[in-house]
Amino acid sequence: MRLCSPPVYSLVGVVTLLLPLWEVGCSGLSASPRLRPLRAPSGLEGALRRQKRSWVWNQFFVLEEYTGNDPLYVGKLHSDVDRGEGNVKYVLNGEGATSIFTIDENTGDIHATKRLDREEQAYYTLRAQAVDRATNRPVEPESEFIVKIQDINDNEPKFLDGPYTAGVPEMSPLGTSVVQVAATDADDPTYGNSARVVYSIIYGQPYFSVEPKSGIIRTALPNMDRETRDQYVLVIQAKDMVGQMGGLSGTTSVTVTLTDVNDNPPRFSRKSYQYTVPESQPVASVVARIKAADADVGSNAEMDYRIIDGDGLGMFKVSTDKDTQEGLITLQKPMDFETKTSYTLRLEATNRHIDPQFLSLGPFSDTATVRVMVEDVDEPPVFALLLSKMVVSEAAKVGTIIGTVSAHDPDASNSAIRYSIDRNTDLERFFNIDAMTGVISTAKPLDREVNAVHNITIFAMESQDPSQVGKGIAVITVMDINDNAPVFAIEYETVLCENAKPGQVIQTISAVDKDEPPSGHRFFFALSAEAAGNLNFTLRDNKDNTASILTKRVGFQRQEQSLYRLPILIVDSGSPSLSSTNTLSIQVCDCDPDGLAQSCSAEAYMLPAGLSTGALIAILACVVTLLVFVLLIVTMRRRKKEPLILEEERDVRENIVRYDDEGGGEEDTEAFDMVALRNLNVIRDHKARRDVTPEVTTFFSSRPAYKTLPDNVIFREFIWDRLKDADVDPSAPPYDSLQTYAFEGSGSVADSLSSLESLSTDSDQNYDYLSDWGPRFKKLADMYGNTEGCNIFS
User: Fold this and answer.
1) Which of 121, 298, 347, 442 is 20 to 30 Å from the Cα of 270, by its Cα?
2) 665 φ/ψ sector (left φ>0, alpha ψ -120 to 50, else beta)
3) Which residues pair with 761 in a beta bridge?
4) For residue range 50-75, what is the model confidence (pLDDT) as tens digits?
5) DSSP labels, 8-26
6) Burial track 774-786 (b if 16+ CB lie within 10 A, e otherwise)
7) Which range is least confidently modeled, 213-222, 283-292, 732-741?
8) Which of 107-111, 446-450, 662-666 tops mean pLDDT?
9) SS3 string of 505-567?
């Protein structure tokens, strides 16, 4: 069997070896088979003929991207068994069989039915076999062959990593490498020049160049300046076929950024600057900002400022703002316009990071002159001493001069100063200050033991402008005098055992003194005069501000005396010395052999002379009963003294209503209760008005009981008493009130109650004094003051 790709070569009757495969098949592109027939040994020739295998294999080559309308002829299979009688059938299996490649089962012709792309698959492996058509049994063993797709230049170069970005330092020398680009071509690099790429620069000259074979981009000009232009966009082309005519090409962009180097020194925009600053500018505040321009960026533009000369070296300092690279001029000391009106500074700005290779471009520093003008402002008074220290004895009398503070107006106007004390710092007003002279004196007695140091704030105010206030501090220390006597250090509880021996120390005492003498305390102890000769105890001064109490005898018994009180005299060493007598209580107790108190109660021995617990309880119960009884009596007396018809009295006064028409006399009972007016005896007692506390209380002589008078006189007498109380009470306002009573109408036993008819009645009341009360009482004076006497009732 033979595989033919025209021209067809076959060797029959010998073993055929495929030494390498043909490069060209039946397409006719090449007819140079590389097969070499090998003859078998003579003894084997017959055997080889009997087992003849007559497949002849080689590679088939098929051009990719075939665009014809008919199937592309690939080659032909033929077996020696096939005599042309149609008994042999050819079968094709493997990659693409029946889908891409077909075979004519009668003739063995192979065709490609689809367009092939080498870049998708470069070759196909197929299996061919000849079978008997009748029995479908193989007449030849199955063997493989390869269909190789032959490449054409159908793919342009591509930059898989593009577009590119790169950076190169400015001022780089000529030929400095920037970046390398690479393009790939999908065509077969082993066949022709389809995949051989060369590079060229389309856009970006004359600044950059590219090496044709390697794709390395280099600078084409020296000393490119970032400050002039900092970015370039290049277009690089890659072309296959070694750049020849007809080759395919692809492009990419390369963005090249010039990175900064420190090639520019800082420069001030001007050689001199001037700033105006008020003299009240606080210390540590920024008074000016100045910046030297630097065309570089980042760390290359960082700079340091310093004052190199001028008369403001001690007044100002300069630092760099790390964010803005400005020079911050900061005030170091307070300014005073009256002392100095301007300052001059010479400032230098220097790059922090200097590149030695660019030193030839000049010094990387610059200088400028800064003039600071001090502006005059109205300043508050200034104390000669911000902190004045004074001392005063606690024995100083009120009005004693302690010291003087002084302040002045720093402005040219030199306004007069007034002084005062901030009372928030002298709440108890211990001190006064003379407003004009600033002399501080005591206003109250001082006590060092209560407050040893007074820290007060003094205000100094300009007379012409009170809003300008200066503050000073006066620290007044109160000096100690010996004005406190020594006393016991603690409240001693001294226990004396019944079995105490003579000369036994039963208590050690010490003393304290609120005073603080400069040389320290020294106390002297002794028994008081009345206790000096007692037979029970003695005192020993230990000469170390302590004293010991000792027994003088034995035989102390609780039943005889359970408590002793020993007066002790303590004297200090002050000048003059002070002393105090302190009483030490000594309790007699029953003690164990170790001297520990077991029982100090003397109750068992004092029962005959005292009271039992039951007796005390009985006495307490009696006291409680007595208190309850007293409270009950007081309560009953209060209830008895309360007016029984207090509300009726209030009703009587408040229900006298002014009528505009005549009522129905006694038959008109809606306005008030007539019974209330008839029960008047309970309120005959004079009472002061409840709306005020009268300064003078006048008691009138008693009058006959109302119930003994006729009915027509009852109301007249009652209202007369009310009116008289109101008229003669000078402490109860209003003094000019007008009492108005309405007419009850005909048939009333009270007749008319109108005060207008009082002018014609007899009265012992004199109203002439109303004329002396002024214009507010003129109307009352006109009504009552011109008559010799008037009675308001008819």
Assistant:
1) 298
2) left
3) 791
4) 444 444 445 777 777 777 778 888 88
5) P----SSB---SS--SS-T
6) eeebeebbebbbe
7) 732-741
8) 446-450
9) EEEEEEEECCCCCCCCCCCEEEECHHHCCCCCEEEEECCCCEEEEEECCCCCCCCCCCEEEEE
> Which helix or strand (DSSP H or E) is residue 713 part of?
helix 711-728
Q: 236 near 202, Cβ under 8 Å? A: yes
Can you name the residues that pair with 65 across neighbouring β-strands? none
Average confidence (pLDDT) over 679-701: 44
Q: For residue 658, what are the CA distances in angstroms to 490, 667, 735, 744, 775? A: 80, 17, 21, 9, 27
- Bridge-partner residues for 455, per DSSP? 475
Q: Which residues contact 441 (CB under 8 A, 6 or more apart)?
A: 399, 400, 401, 402, 431, 432, 433, 434
Contact between 442 and 397 under an 8 Å Cβ cutoff? The reply is yes
Q: Which pairing describes strands 524-527 and 563-571: parallel, antiparallel, or unpaired?
A: antiparallel
Give me the pLDDT at residue 86, please: 80
- Residue pair 307/344 in contact (Cβ under 8 Å)? The answer is no
Mean pLDDT of 205-228: 92
> Facing residues of 235 across strands?
203, 253
DSSP 700: P
Q: Assign 741 a pLDDT band (cuts: 50, 70, 90).
A: low
CA distances (Å), 284 to each of 316, 334, 335, 370, 403, in order?
Answer: 9, 9, 12, 18, 34
Average pLDDT over residues 483-501: 91
Count the residues in the chain: 794
pTM: 0.45
Element (H, E) at 603: helix 603-606
Q: Among residues 94, 78, 90, 91, which one has the least CA distance to residue 126?
A: 94
